[in-house]
Each structure stands twice: as structure tokens, then as C-alpha cells.
Amino acid sequence: MAKTIVAVDCMGGDNAPGEIVKGAILAANKNKKILVKLVGIEDAIKAELAQYTYDEAQVEIVPATEVIETAEPPVIAIRTKTDSSLVKAMKLVKEGEAHAVVTAGSTGATLVGGQLLVGRIPGVKRPPLAPLIPTNKKPALLIDCGANVDAKPQNLVQFAKIGSVYMENVIGVKNPRVAIVNIGAEEEKGNALVKEAYGLLSIENDINFVGNVEARDIPNGDVDVIVCEAFVGNVILKLYEGVGAVLLKKVKSALMSNIKTKVGALLIKSKLKETLKDFQLEQYGGAPLLGLNGLVVKTHGSSKANEIKNSVLQCVRFNEMEINKKIQEKLSDN
Amino acid sequence: MAKTIVAVDCMGGDNAPGEIVKGAILAANKNKKILVKLVGIEDAIKAELAQYTYDEAQVEIVPATEVIETAEPPVIAIRTKTDSSLVKAMKLVKEGEAHAVVTAGSTGATLVGGQLLVGRIPGVKRPPLAPLIPTNKKPALLIDCGANVDAKPQNLVQFAKIGSVYMENVIGVKNPRVAIVNIGAEEEKGNALVKEAYGLLSIENDINFVGNVEARDIPNGDVDVIVCEAFVGNVILKLYEGVGAVLLKKVKSALMSNIKTKVGALLIKSKLKETLKDFQLEQYGGAPLLGLNGLVVKTHGSSKANEIKNSVLQCVRFNEMEINKKIQEKLSDN
Questions:
Q1: Which of A168, A176, A306, B39 pairs as cysteine with B62 (C-beta 3.0–4.6 A)?
Q2: Cβ B227 vs Cβ B143: under 8 Å
Q3: Contact list, B278 vs chain A (CB under 8 Å)
Q4: CB proximity A136 to B under 8 Å
Q5: β-bridge mates for residue B35, sequence order
Q6: Exposed e or buried b for every residue in A31-68, given b needs 16+ CB within 10 A?
Q7: Do the Cβ atoms of B226 and B240 come closer than 8 Å?
Q8: Is residue A301 less than 8 Å (CB to CB) from chain B?
Q9: Burial letters B106-123, b for 16+ CB under 10 A, else e
Q10: In B86-105, which positions are buried (b, 16+ CB within 10 angstroms) versus exposed (e)?
Q11: Predicted confidence band at B14 (pLDDT cuts at 50, 70, 90)?
Q12: Listed residue (B118, B99, B117, B84) closest to B35, CA to CA
């Protein structure tokens, strides 16, 4: 099988370019079927590359002289910074010179660039950003999380289908259970958007729709594809992080409160760390922006090499499983 | 000062009537200025009362023969079960024979009954349900959490004002900081509802509006009144519970994994429990349904005596501080 080509935005994120280049090389060294195109300021990338051993046939540098900062207005940044690492990486996908982009840069610019530069698969109305979130069982796909506010019921139906394809083929969940986020388990509950989407989802034959999921039950992990509009998805994603961080801070302060608890802490520390690792959002790599002519993976702004590595490896499976073709088929089913 | 009269729905909730009656008596015994009217099936209430010592001048029984179950459609239940404990308790407020209702019964029936039976303060468009939620600092008021889906921007402005009055006068937070839940900190972010509400909130002089709050930052506790429409509020409230519960389950399983961790667990257990207690939603008592001609406090369905007691005590401060008069003044300010 041909190589999967991943354009890596080496200038985006808090730890660019060091951790980004490192992550790309780790991925290339792990999987010989990857070619990474490192996009960014040439000298900076070369200086980083000098530290590593890798197969030169797997690594290319694509020079870009500009950098899009997090605070820049996304549309203006994408339109005017044509020699930025993000714009050039996305153009590689558009022009068929890469299968995917991985970026830790501005979320706004990534979403805008995905739509304007990479472009949508025919039939996809709004490309959803769909991170995996930890649960008490297996991770679940939260779709959509930031790309499209004020969504319509039909958009949510597409999210359900796109998410089902992703979970089945990339994550390997057979017949993934799809639920819509609502404020009660009963069918008649919810706002106008959710009620109408519920009706549409119920009559779809090619997804495994199981009904409403209340926010309280999301962390239990009983559904695989969690459908919601972007505002609600964003609240869920961010609150997961926020509540987790504050609770862990509280646990730590309890462990450090006196001699007795400090001794106890030594005994439980490694086990506790291991258990809680499952519940960290970062470990699942970046969030794919789905429904595009190619794949765009947005990693955390604070990504380190490991998250970049996992995100690049994710692109291989996405490419080899022909996810976009499957999404297109699913959407044209009815 | 005259007594505060609280109608307690003794038949609502998982632990009715035992824990409900017990909680009401605990409150009466704690504060001599309370008169509790215990509404429900007379024999059942009498049997519970027989276990306690209390001042008979502080306790009355108001017989009601019916019970509204959680699963009943709210509007039908309120309209047809006219001799239910919830309907009778609410009618006591409407008729001026009680200042407040405390119920652990059906949320839906409570919200409907509040509007239909107790009635709104003139000028209040939609009465918000506003629980206190724990944060890393002081608790914050989450307003609205369940009463009104598909809210309008003007409703959110009222929530901000009503919430400010509550936090300032009931909880004692001077000049409470008000923020609106959004998907970014910048003014231009968000959906149509939030953008328009942001504009309206910015030009209000009589609230301390500090801008957007992202869901990630809610648990930090840097704002006092968290304004959102009910769907989002419900998601925040429920996810708080859900993420907290799963994380604690994980911590517990780590502590129980082997002999070493079990010894460690013994050393940290009491301190950990004490620290995490601050982060349990139940400890803040019930959620007030605000903007009504009286006060309705909805406690958790699983409420035990302590939550009922705290909720009854909350009504005293609400009544003595003349919160409804203050809300009415605030709303008529511009």
C-alpha cells in the first residue's frame, strides 16, 4: 500500500516547533508507511531534525515563512497569511500532495481553513469537529464540538452518520450506539432543535440510534457516538477538563495535608496516576475535523510530542480505511 | 419578626415521607422563627412525627390524599391531581398561607406548578431554576437550569439580574460577578442567542457583568452568577455530577487495587472525604425556582433529611431579606 502523507504544521501550538517535529519523527519511526511533510520555518525545523535519527525517505520539509497566532481573527488570518505553515499545510491536502494535516495551532483558523482551503466532501453541510472523550468504559466520540454554532436538525443527523463511520472504522466499534444529548431521557423532552433531530434520527435505518443521553450519563460510557450541536459539545468538552482538573487539585491537596496523608500518598501514588491517566483527554490524540476532502486533525494547543505522534498515526488508519469514501456512501444512502 | 411559613411536600422524592418529615423537624428545631406545614397523607406524617420532639406551635399537618409520581406528565399531573401534596403545598403559597414550598418531587411538575399555581412576579418573563454549584472557591449560582428551553436574549438579562439579587442577599456576595457561558472568552464568539445577550448585558448598569465564561473555567470559581439558557445549564449541572462521580469511582478503584494501596487508603481516607465534600452538589440544599410570588425550592429526588433541613432554613433568609421585593425593584430599574 502507498504511503500516507501527513502535512504537519510545525509552527502551531505552545510547544512549536520542538515538540511538533519530535512527534512527527516519532510517528515516522513507528510506522514505515508514513511520509511526514514538515511545514514551517525551514531553519527552525532543520535545527530540530538535527537531533533525531530517521529514514530520510519519510521526511520532507515544506518551507513556510509566516505563522498564524492563536489570537488572530481566523478568516482574515487564513485569507491573508498565504505563506503561513497552516495555510500551506492545508493547501498540500487540497492539491493532493498530502492526505491529512495535523496542527496544534489556532482552533478558529483550523476550522475556517478546513472549510475554505481543504473543502467539504460533496453532500456534507457542515464539517464537525469530533474529539474522543474518556468515559468509565471505552472512549466516546463527541460530535460536534466547535465548528458550527446554530446548527439545524439535518446537520445533527449528518453528524450521527459521520460519527458512526468514524467509530466503526477508525476506532473499531461494531455497530456504534448513537445518542443525542438531551435534558431528560424521555422522547418529548428538549429544545426545538433536539426534538426535531430526535425525530429525524429515529427514522434513519443505517445508524444504531439509541435515543437521548443526559449529560450526567455521558461519563458512564454507555454510548459511542454523542451527537450535539457545537455550543453544547464545546461546553461538554471544556467542562470535562475543568471539573477533572479541579477535582484532581482537591485530591492532591488532601494528600499533602499532613504527615499521615503524605505517607498514604506515597503508597497510592503510582496506582492512582495509572488509573486517572485513562481519564485524560490528551491521551486520545487530536480531534478530527470530519467531512472534508482529506483529514484535518486539531490537537491541543499545549500538545507535546506524544499527542502529535498519536495524531499522525491516526491519519494512517483514516486514510487506509478510506473513511471519506465511506462517509460519502453513508450520506448518500437515503 | 413574624414566622416564616414553609409548606413542605412530604410525599415527593425517593425518601418520602421519612426523611422529608425528619428534615422539616430538624429545621424547625434549629430555628424558632419557622412554622412548617407538612403537606401529605395524614397518617403517614403522624407516624413519622411520633418519633420526634418539637414545639407544636411550629408544626402543622395539611392533609393531602394524592401523590404526583416522577414519571407523570407534569401539566396533566398539576391540573388533575388537585389533592396532591405538591399542588396543595403550592396553593398554600398562592393563598398567602405559606411563604415558600420545599419539594423533592418531580422537577417537571414543580416547574409547571410554580408557574401555574404560585405564579410569576409581575415583570418576570420566565422563572429560572437556579442551583448553587461547587467550585474551587465559593459556590456559584447557575441560572437557568431547567425551566425554560429556547430562551430569548431578554430572558438571559433577567436571569442575570435575578441571580445577582439572590447571590447578594441570600448568599451574601457583595457586588456579585455575572458572566455568560460561552465557547470562548472573546466578545464576538458564540451562537446568536449568546451574542445578543452579551450586548444587552454589557449595557446594564445595575449588574456587575464581567463578560464570557468558558465551561472549562466554571469550576475555578471566579464568577458568582453564571448565566445560560436552560438546556446548557442542565448539561453543566448534570455533567458536573457525572464527571465527579466517575472520577471518584476511579480514585476508589485505584485505592482498592492491592495491599499497598489499601494501606495508603486508610491513611488518607478521612482527609480525602473531607476535602471532596466541598465538591458535592447536595450540600448546597435545593435549587430555588426564582421570580415567583413566593419561593419554590426543588431539592434532589434522593434528598435526605439534611438537604431538606437546609432547604427549609434557606427559605427563612429568602423571606426575611424580602428577595422578591428586591427582584421586582431590580427588574423595574430600566
A1: B39
A2: yes
A3: 250
A4: yes
A5: B5
A6: beebbbbbbbbeebbeebbeeeeeeeebbebbebebbb
A7: no
A8: no
A9: bbbbbbbbbbebbbebee
A10: bbbbbbbbbeeebbbbbbbb
A11: very high
A12: B99
Q: Amino acid identity, residue A34?
A: I
Roughly what angle, to the nearest 10 degrees, separates helices A323-331 and A153-166? 140
**What does the alpha-carbon distance between residue A112 and residue A118 come to, in Å, rounded to a whole number?**
10
Is residue B76 less than 8 Å (CB to CB) from chain A? no
Q: Which of A250, A274, A275 sits opposite B275 (nearest CB)?
A: A250
Q: What are phi and psi of B320, to 5 degrees?
A: -65, -30
> How far apart, in whole angstroms, are the C-alpha atoms of residue B118 and residue B102?
13
DSSP three-state, residue A41: coil
Distance in Å, alpha carbon of B288 to nearest chain A alpha carbon? 18
**Per-residue model confidence (pLDDT) at position B26:** 97
Q: Cell digits for A306?
A: 506524544
Rounded to the nearest 5 degrees, what angle is found at the Cα of B166, between the Cα atoms of B313 and B22? 15
Q: A-chain residues within 8 Å CB-CB of B230?
A: 183
Question: What integer pLDDT is reported at residue A1 of this predicted model?
Answer: 62
Closest chain B C-alpha to A107 CA, distance in angstroms: 11
DSSP A145-164: SSS-SS--HHHHHHHHHHHH
* Chain B contact present for A135, CB below 8 A: yes
Q: What phi and psi values does residue B34 have, to the nearest 5 degrees?
A: -105, 140
By CA distance, what is B276's nearest residue in A? A250
Q: What is the DSSP letter of A167?
A: I
Contact B183 A214 (CB under 8 A): no
Q: Could you tell me if B46 lies within 8 Å of chain A, comparing CB atoms?
A: no
Q: Measuring CA to CA, which residue among B282, B312, B296, B295 is closest to residue B26?
A: B312
Amino acid at position A117, single letter: L
Residue A128 has pLDDT above 90, yes or no: yes
pLDDT for position A185? 67
User: Which value does ipTM take for this structure?
Assistant: 0.91
Query: Which residues does chain B have within 8 Å of residue A244's beta carbon, measured at their own beta carbons?
Result: 243, 247
Q: How many CB pairs under 8 A join A and B?
A: 191
Closest residue to A234, CB basis, from B146, B183, B266:
B183
- pTM, full prediction: 0.92
Q: What is the pLDDT of residue A291?
A: 95
Mean pLDDT of A234-250: 91
Q: Which helix (H) or strand (E) holds B310?
A: helix B305-320
| Alpha-carbon span A145 to A231, nearest angstrom | 7
Considering only residues 145 to 184 of chain B, which have any Cβ-Cβ distance to chain A shorter than 8 Å?
A: 146, 149-150, 181, 183
Judge: A254–B265 Cβ closer than 8 Å, yes or no.
no
Q: Helices in chain A by DSSP H: which ranges? A: 18-30, 42-49, 74-80, 85-94, 107-113, 153-166, 192-202, 230-255, 259-277, 305-320, 323-331
Structural element, H or E, at residue B133:
strand B132-133
User: Are A239 and B218 an interchain contact pair (Cβ–Cβ within 8 Å)?
Assistant: yes
Separation between Cα atoms, residue A120 and residue A118, nearest integer Å: 7
For residue B278, the model assigns a pLDDT of 76
**Closest approach of A84 to chain B, Cα-based (Å):** 24
Report CA torsion sign: B230, B233, B238, B241: negative
Long-range contacts, stretch B41-45, CB < 8 angstroms, 24+ apart? B41/B10, B41/B11, B41/B17, B41/B65, B41/B67, B41/B85, B44/B10, B44/B11, B44/B17, B45/B10, B45/B17, B45/B21
Check CB contact under 8 Å for A264 and B260.
no
The residue length of chain B stands at: 334
Nearest chain B alpha carbon to A135: B246
Q: What angle do CA A121, A123, A127 make, to 5 degrees?
A: 55
- The lowest-confidence range among A146-150, A215-219, A328-332, B55-59 is A146-150
